[in-house]
Amino acid sequence: HREHLLRFTRRLLPGDPHRAEDVVQECMLRAWRHREQLSADGVVVRSWLFTVARNLIVDWIRRDRARPVIFGDDDFDLLP
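Now predict its structure.
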């Protein structure tokens, strides 16, 4: 599942291959933590992994947008 998941995350995070890899690693960790649930009948592991990846990416995008921009003293010298 790893290669398919990596392709998926790279498409959703163009230009940020390191973050895409981080998402895949986090998905695998979460799958390991929930292995009892995932091994139960009726649970489709692949769709579970892709849902987790999508949710992680959405969370990261929201967090990035919510971060304040901090200006230093030198930045004010650039203002007209």
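Helices lie at 2-12, 17-33, 35-38, 45-66, 73-76.
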